Each structure stands twice: as structure tokens, then as C-alpha cells.
Amino acid sequence: MKYTNEEILVACNKMCPNTLMETLEIEFTEVGADYLIARMPVTPKVHQPDGVLHGGASVALAESIGSAGAFVFLNSEEIVIRGIEIAANHVKSVRDGYVYAHASILHKGRTTQLWQIKITNDDGALVSMVKLTTLTLPKK
């Protein structure tokens, strides 16, 4: 069954209540043929003690969007998706506004997938570059 981009975004945002995604106020905003975009507000809730975005919050955003991307772009009705490895390079600080995560799949294997997630600020400058590996398992 083919879903519209709007239906996909609604489904992704419906996964957020009562999860870390709700706590971090992550919102899925755009989906394309091979990418998914989400945003997260940068407020004191996600700051380090010195008032800048915590790298762990960026990684949580990246894993959330990469896992959602696997849900969207793989046959999620037949599989269970798990993140198995994540690596992040943080290159710019952010104090406020939003950060935007753009997830695209680099490798779409039968059991493992490799995702690239670019996190940018309101001006489009790179904040973090993240690599996520997901594992798909058959539902039992």
C-alpha cells in the first residue's frame, strides 16, 4: 500500500507521545523519496551546563530520525528495527532556535542499513554529522 507524504509524517509524529521524542519535542516535518527531516527545539531542557546543546540530545535526535527512516523506507510491517551502532561528530555549538536532522540511507541491505544524519541549525550550518547502523529482524 502506498502512503502519501502527509500520511507518513502523521504516522511518524504519532509514534512520539510518551517517548523520549516527546520529551525532546522532536517533530517530523518533511519526507521525500529517500530522506526524512525532523526538528528539535534548542532550549535549556537540552543544554549542557554551559548553555549549549548537549551532544547526547543531538544523538537522541539522530537515532530517532534514523529509526523512523527505517520504519518509513523499509517494509516495517514485516520487520523489527533496532539501532546497533551510532557515531557522531559535533562541529558547532547551538544555544537556541531549532536543529534540523536530515536522514538519508546510504546502504539498504537485507538485514543492516547505514544512515547518514546531518544536523544543522536555523541558518543551515552543520552542527553534527551522524552515522547510524540499523538492524532489521523478522517479526515473530
Task: Tell me the layout of helices and strands.
Elements: H1 5-14, H2 20-23, E1 27-31, E2 35-42, H3 55-73, E3 79-90, E4 97-108, E5 112-120, E6 126-138
Antiparallel strand pairs: 1-2, 2-4, 3-6, 4-5, 5-6
Domain Thioesterase: 51-127
GO cellular component, one term: cytosol
InterPro entries: HotDog_dom_sf, PAAI_dom, Thioestr_dom
Descriptive report:
Strand 5 and strand 6 form a beta hairpin. The two termini are 22 Å apart. This protein is an alpha+beta fold and 140 residues long. The model has no long low-confidence stretch (mean pLDDT 93). It has a single domain, classed as Hotdog Thioesterase (Thiol Ester Dehydrase, Chain A).
List keywords for this structure.
140 residues, alpha+beta, Thiol Ester Dehydrase, Chain A, 6-stranded antiparallel beta sheet, 6 strands, 24% helix
Tell me briefly what this model is.
The chain has about 140 residues and is α+β, with helices and mostly antiparallel strands.
Task: Calculate the terminal CA-CA distance, rounded to whole Å.
Answer: 22 Å
Question: Within the CATH hierarchy, at the fold level, what is the topology?
Answer: Thiol Ester Dehydrase, Chain A
Mean pLDDT across all amino acids: 93
Task: Name the shape in a single word.
Answer: globular
Given the helix and strand composition, which structural class is it? alpha+beta
Radius of gyration: 15 Å
Helical fraction? 10-25%
CATH superfamily: Hotdog Thioesterase
Strand content: 35-45%
Number of helices: 3
Number of strands: 6
Unreliable stretches, pLDDT < 50, 5 or more residues? none
